[in-house]
Amino acid sequence: xxxxxxxxxxxxxxxxxxxxxxxxxxxxxxxxxxxxxxxxxxxxxxxxxxxxxxxxxxxxxxxxxxxxxxxxxxxxxxxxxxxxxxxxxxxxxxxxxxxxxxxxxxxxxxxxxxxxxxxxxxxxxxxxxxxxxxxxxxxxxxxxxxxxxx
Length: 150
What we know:
Elements: H1 2-36, H2 43-75, E1 91-94, E2 97-102, E3 106-110, E4 113-119, H3 123-128, E5 136-139, E6 142-149
Helix pairs in contact: 1-2
């Protein structure tokens, strides 16, 4: 089972690294645009362009900080732990989908099976956390029966 967990974990790490790279690239582009903006006779236009570039940099810095938090959360997850109660690092199989409790990274295909990488802080992750095989939970009017927790 740890091989599956490792695949899912690696996919989440790749997702977060891609987010970090995209934010870093956008910061560099915004800073380049800010430094390339030359003063024209219309001083207000210059200041507006610089301010817009600064706001874009700030937005992307916030996205980079969020991605860094996700990476820290991923680094805390053990892919070797054998869990019987759902928590971070668990692979949970239900009758309405398969879940990997880690960070919210969307759908991941591993071994031809789709898993949803969800955070334990997300609505469905919070419902799954603490459950074990045989337990049920309800979300948005849908009943989920847990077949296994690994």
